[in-house]
Structures are given as structure tokens and as C-alpha cells.
Design a protein that fits this description.
- Strand 1 and strand 2 (about 145) form a beta hairpin.
- By secondary structure, the chain is an all-alpha fold.
- About 70% of the residues lie in helices and about 0% in strands.
- A two-stranded antiparallel sheet has the order 1-2.
- It has a single domain (about 5-210), classed as Rhomboid-like (Rhomboid-like fold), CATH 1.20.1540.
- The protein contains 11 helices and 2 strands, in the order ααααααααββααα.
């Protein structure tokens, strides 16, 4: 099985278990106040394997699986035999990085909590978009209608706005920073380790899209 499928299965099993076990949910959820006061830093990672409900879980895992397999295969092309290792590093490190701004903004707020794999999934999705910017993508229930290089900036702009607004009970900050981190991780590791200029490939694909 692919690493993407393994991560999906693990996330589904832990998420369902936590939905029916409040103690487990409380132990794994991202609670910045507890992280700060009791040094429970593992919550940066554990919170990415639990979800609020089945809809939340299904949406994240569907998005992850749709892009994950492609990204995983492309990493094998860039990094060779170490591609799987870098794919895992990307996913796990994105769980941490996407929540750092959340932690800094909320570690004094006892009632603030966050959960879900959205930040890491956003990292994978945006790596996929950067590798294949002309793929057709839709918004939620809207069919694929616009290329990724247009969808990406629109999504980031909307996410940044919603994050600043800070309403709706969704951690838009994790989505935003996960997306940005994924692209940065890809560019840096591909250049220095894989010796592949993904920025040039990105630009060339967009030029080809416009027939240049």
C-alpha cells in the first residue's frame, strides 16, 4: 500500500476512536494553553489524527487521498529511493508548522482548541498544485473548472481573509500556513537535495497553458 493510504487508514481509525471516547479526544486535541503550561508538545502532531465529526474526517481524507498519491509518486521521481522518507517528513512537519501561528496567538486562551489534519492536507494539496499547476480544480461541490495556478492564489487570499476575521470555528490559519509551508518545503528540498528546479517547471507549464 502507498504511504498515503497508510496515513489515511491510521487517521480514520484514531479519529473514529476519539469521536466515541471523550478522554482520548481531550488527550489528543490541540490545546495551546495546555501545551504552554504543561509542555505537552505532542499535541501539535496528535491533533492532526483526530476530527470533529465524520464530515470533517471525510472531507480531509478525500482531499488528502486525491492529491497524496500523485505527490508521493512525484517525490519518488525527484528524490529517488528517499522519496517516501521526504513525503512522510513533509506531512508530519506540516502538522507542526501549520499550528505554530495558532499556538502563538492562543496559548493564553484556555478555551481555545483545534483539531484536524487540514494544515498537513493543505500542504500536500498545494505541493500537488505546484507540481501540476494546470490541473483543473473546483471549489468544494463545484466541478473542476479552473487551473490550479489560479485556484491557489484565490484560495490563499480567501483563507488569509477568513483567518484575519477569525470567525466560524475553523482554523483557517492552519490551512494558510500549511499551504505555504508545503510549497516552500518542495522548492527547497527539490533544489538542494533532488537537484530539480520545480519553480522553472511550474513557470514552463503555465507558459505552455497559454501557448507560449
Amino acid at each position: 500500500m502507498s504511504i498515503t493510504l497508510y496515513i489515511t487508514i491510521i487517521t480514520v481509525v484514531i479519529s473514529i476512536a476519539a469521536m466515541y471516547n471523550d478522554n482520548l479526544m481531550d488527550k489528543l486535541i490541540f490545546h495551546p494553553y495546555t501545551v504552554h503550561e504543561h509542555n505537552e508538545w505532542y499535541r501539535f502532531f496528535s491533533s492532526g489524527f483526530i476530527h470533529a465529526d465524520f464530515m470533517h474526517l471525510a472531507f480531509n481524507m478525500f482531499s488528502f487521498y486525491m492529491f497524496g498519491d500523485y505527490v508521493e509518486q512525484y517525490f519518488a521521481m525527484i528524490f529517488g529511493t528517499t522519496g517516501a522518507r521526504f513525503y512522510i517528513i513533509l506531512y508530519i512537519s506540516a502538522l507542526l508548522v501549520c499550528l505554530i501561528p495558532t499556538y502563538l496567538n492562543h496559548f493564553k486562551q484556555y478555551h481555545y482548541r483545534s483539531l484536524g489534519a487540514s494544515g498537513a492536507v493543505s500542504a500536500i494539496v498545494f505541493v500537488g498544485i505546484f507540481l501540476q499547476p494546470t490541473m483543473q480544480i473546483g471549489f468544494f461541490i463545484i466541478p473542476p473548472i479552473i487551473p490550479g495556478f489560479i485556484f491557489g492564489p484565490i484560495y490563499l487570499g480567501l483563507t488569509a481573509y477568513l483567518s484575519k476575521k477569525g470567525q466560524g470555528g475553523i482554523n483557517h490559519s492552519a490551512h494558510l500556513w500549511g499551504s505555504i509551508y508545503g510549497v516552500v518545503f518542495l522548492i527547497v528540498t527539490a533544489h538542494f537535495i533532488g537537484h530539480v528546479e520545480v519553480v522553472s517547471l511550474f513557470i514552463d507549464q503555465i507558459k505552455a497553458y497559454f501557448g507560449r
